[in-house]
Structures are given as structure tokens and as C-alpha cells.
Queue: 2 jobs
Job 1
Amino acid sequence: MSQSTHGVTLDAPSAAHKVAQVNPKLFSTLGDEQSVDVLVVGGGPAGSSCAIALAREGANVMLVDAQARGRDKCCGHCLSGRAWKIVSELGLRELVESVSTGATAQVAWRSGAHGFEMNLPALGAITPRVALDKKLLDEAERVGVRVVQPATAKWLDAQKFAVRLAERTCVVDAKLVIAADGLGSGIARARGWNPTSPGRKYGFAGSWRAPHALANWSGERIEMRVVRGGYLGMVAESHEQIHVAGLIDRNSKVSRPDDLLNEVARSWPLLAAALQEGRPSRWNAAGPLPWKPTRIADESTALVGDAAGYAEPFSGEGMRWAFESAYGLARAWRQHRGWSATAAQTYSKWHSDHIARRQQKTLRTAWFLAQPTRASIMCQAARSFPRVASWLACRMTQ
């Protein structure tokens, strides 16, 4: 199910989506009723990583994903260098490296006439989500997870879901339901954990064939541009593909991704020349932002990834937070030898200490830097005082 806002297709806040192509072999995995240890709803990095980690612990895991494998997602496609430790702890470093198309070493940041470049604290990676998500789901199947897709998952009660694959419905009884269904999580809403005052901003992303105007652009640099009403990040996924991602305030004059591209191009001749040759033909978007549920876990349900809370894409840490939440949940499972109210408390505290706290810092940093006037002052300070640039680099990759 989707909704359209200003011509942009947005993922609706629901755990159910329209069924696409169906693999007939999946029917053999579903009966009228199923009992599993863990039901994961959502097949992005957070959901797949949770499924893999718990299956390796010996749990009987089913993962339900709404879309066919190979669907692109709203994401900046960049994994920060600080995420490698968590990815390694999950035993997924080689897998992630196998789909990376390049590295990120610098951020070039500009607001109006002012800007500067800074080296990132650790070398990151460009990891297109189409390839990454597919590889993670393949690994989940390899370790014994039953991956059912494209299928819907409808909440019945705290531990029961109606999983629908094409015209067939199966009731799944799970000891633990892991909601990895993203911003506006349908499961969080069903549990009454959704925030009372959701944000008004939306993230978006899109790619297009690299234009001649960007032929000599460095593939190791992330370009960040701040304008009134939003900000834009751009990276070269490969020699043939340019990817942009950013944030817009739906109440501002740049309420559509194309508006933001055009606004940024007014002060960036290189982008203006590139847009003469082409632009993304399709946008992926998600929101609203920020999203902070009132609770993330109890004895029967746990939220991970964006569903457990997301600040803004300013720091580019979305994928790190996804892997990190999976690591935190698996850690609690291992510590308590399964899932319980105590395990839920352990995971909730770990998430608060390691993810939610940094997300709050990201929100404060983004508030300060996402306004052109304040951003210009910071740009000038960073160019004059190296320690300011170093501080900013750390704040942007919490």
C-alpha cells in the first residue's frame, strides 16, 4: 500500500503491501497454521541481520517481506566507517564488502557561498541497497531462515499474524515478533507505540546514469549541500551511476525532491550542468521524520532499524543504526538464552544507550546546520579552525 505526496511515492505506515511476483516454491513453506520462535516482518538490513543472527543461535525464524527481492529503497547507500565493527560482530563484513562499489573518505559540505572539505574519521563504503538487501536475504535463507516474499503480514494480536502469499493465508504464531517494517511501522501502530506527534519531514533518494559533467568527480567524496527547506547529499555509486539522497520539509517551498535539486543547482554549477543531461526518473521516499516510538520492546514484540526510531539522514548513519539494533537485539537474546520481558528490558536499555542517545545528538546537530545562515557560519569557522572541522566530522558520524 502506498500514498502519493506531491508526486512522490511514499511507503505508507502499514505492515501490509500489495503482493507482486510470486515464487510458487514458497507455497510449500506455508500451511494453514505455523508456529515459530521468531517472526521478522521486513527484509531490510535490520530485519535480515536479526533473522540471520537468531537463526545462527538455533532459533526457528520466518521472515516476511512485502516486496519482491531486488527492490530499491530510500537510502543514501553509504555505510559509515564506524559501522564496520558492528558488521564484523554480526559476521557479515565479507558479505557487505562483496556488494560495496566504492569507498567514502571525505565530505565536501557547502551552504551558499561558504563550504569546506573534511576527512571522515574512518573509511566508509558505498553499498547500493538493491544488492545489499538481496545478499542479506540470500544469506538468511542459507542459514535456515524461511523467507516468504512478496507477502503481507497482518497483525492479529501480540503474537499472531496472518501471513498472506498471493491467495493463500497462513496464521503464524510466534514467540517473538520483530518489527523491521521501517518508518511509520505498522506493528508499532498496532501495539499503540507510535509517537503522539510525528514529524513533518521526508527523506528521499534516487539514482541516474552519470552525466558527462560529472566524469571527473571524485568517487570517494560525499557532497552535502544545505538550502532553506532541506539538504542534499550526492555520491558516485560507480563510474556509471550517481546517487542523491536528502531531506525535505513538506511545508517548505522545496516540498518535492526535484524542487530541492533545482534549488541546490542554483548555487552549484556542476549539478546544474549535470541536470541538463538527466535526473532520477523515479524517487524512493520515506517518512515522516523524525520517528520515535513510545516503546521499542516487550515480552512478545521488538522494533529494530528505522521502526525503532530514526532522527534525520543528515549524518548518513541509517544503515549503521539498522545493523546496530540487530546486534543489540541478538546480544539480549544470547544473554538471556531466548526472549522474555527481561531480555526486552536489556535490549531497550542497550538501544537507548547506544543508538537513541546518538540520534538525539544528530537531531540537534541537524537543527543547527540545516539552516543556511547557521551552516554558513559553521563553514567559515571550520575553514579557519581545523579543530572545528574535526569536531564536526565526529558529530556527523556519531
Job 2
Amino acid sequence: MRTLPFTALAEGSAGLARRVSYAGDSRLSSSDAQLARFARDALIEEARLTPKPALVDARGSGAHSDLDLATMLRSAHALEPTFEALARASRGAAPGTALRTDLARIGRAGEAAMMRATQGSNAHRGAIWIVGLLVAGAAIVHTPQSSDSECAHAAHICETAAQIARFDDLLAQPAQSNGERVRQRYNVGGARSEAQEGFPHVVRVGLPALHAARAQGYEEAHARVDALLAIMASLDDTCVLHRAGLAGREAARTGAQRVRDAGGVATQAGRAAFDALERALLALNASPGGAADLLAATLFIDRLVQHRMGGRTVSWNN
């Protein structure tokens, strides 16, 4: 796989859950359409970020035989109306069974729209769940309080989304997905637990890594790849487990950590470690798609919170 230049362009959340909505400055709130644009853009930015190990990017299809960058971009654009519908359904609502069931119905319609746009390829099924719940949480937690830091506001959105995820979808059919089979076989939580636990790989891993890399002066693309690698290094990625089992999980985790230990992909040693990670994943036909979805979620929350804080910046490590 040839190498191209980059083209990308902590605290737990449970203790930060407060009331469902804020009475903050309405100028810092986000409309349903704006939330949908932020979500769409997060999917686009994740897809375009290059290089990513064994994932679709500007170099090619990675470990995927049925996806390429153009397909990923069509999927992202096709999902914008779904994200807007999720925000609209959540505005003024409270987490509960009725909302959870309504959001699931919208999500299933969005999945059908995605499949039409991609001619049957699963580009963003996981992201519809992960990013879609965060859109719903952001519509409920619509403005920050004056005392909020970026970290506190992000964690509140994630915890509100988690509250929704903990309720049952009354119209759900028995799940026979690859993710469900992996969860049962390997006893891992997967995307469902990630959401129900308050998106720890967004709040405690992705966002801190992204902001730490920026603080060190990394280019934005380098910072985003570093955030992806941080997520990969600790995630039980059901996409990897489905394709390559425990050997794939070990390759993804240890390989990602080696890149970070070597100074990240901005360094010569880090890029050599990245290339080794990618070779190992491609040999196993393993794609870290779950980590990619969580990077998109990280980028969504990062963009949203920066917009809402109106320029107020507080360290994510506070």
C-alpha cells in the first residue's frame, strides 16, 4: 500500500449527569440541522483522514473489499437527514423507553437509506448508533452552563445519551448481527456497552488524546490519527474480533500502542511502527471499524463543544 501525505483535512461521565436540560445562553445552542451537519462532517472527516491502519482512506480500501472513500462519503451525506430527525425527536424530550423506541425506528430508516446510497455495503451502521445517540443527547443538553468546562459539557452530553441507551427498544427484533455474535463469543461489551457506560472511549480516551496532541503542536491530521490509535490501544473492537478473533485484537491493541510509544505517526519511528501495524492488520483481514466510529464520535463532540463554548477553553485533563 503506497504512502501519501496526511490529508485530514478525565473524568468519568456518570458523576457529571445533572438535570436533563440547561437554561444557558440560547446563542450557544445548536439547531437540529446544525447538529446533523456536525454529525455528517464528523463522518466525512473520519473517512478522509489519511493514513488510517487497514481502514478506508484516501489511499484505498484498507481491509474492505466492498468500500472505498467515495462510498463512505455517499453514506455520510445520506445519513444527514437521519441525524436531523434524531435531533428533532429528542428536542425537549427526556430519556425513556418511548424516546429510545422512536430513535431506534429513525435509526433503522437511516440504515436503509445508507444501504441504498452504498448499494448494499455497510459503511456506517455502527456510527448510526454511536453518533446518532450523541446527536440525541446533544439535542437534549442543548446549551452549556456558565460554569461548565469543555470536559464537563462533553461528559454531560455523553451521559445523557447513555441514559437513552439504557432503555429498551420496544420494537427491537432478536439481534443476529456480527457484533452480537462477537459479544457472546468473546464476552465483550461492544457498541451497546460503550453507549450505556457513557462513551468512555470518547470522554476518557479520544478527546484527551486529541487535545494532548494539539497541545504538543501536532498538525491536526496527526492529532486525529493519534486519537484513533489511543482508542484502538484499549478497545475491544468487535469489528476486529469478528474478522480476526483474539489474534486480531492483540495485533490492533499492541500495534497501536507501539506507534504511540514511538512518538506517533509524525515521527520516523512512529511511522515505521504504523506501517508494521497496518501490515499485521491487513494480513489478518482485520479492520478497526469500531475505533473508527468512536473517532467520528470524538470529532463530533469536539466540534460541537467548541461551538457551544463560544471560545472558552479549559483543559480536557482538568
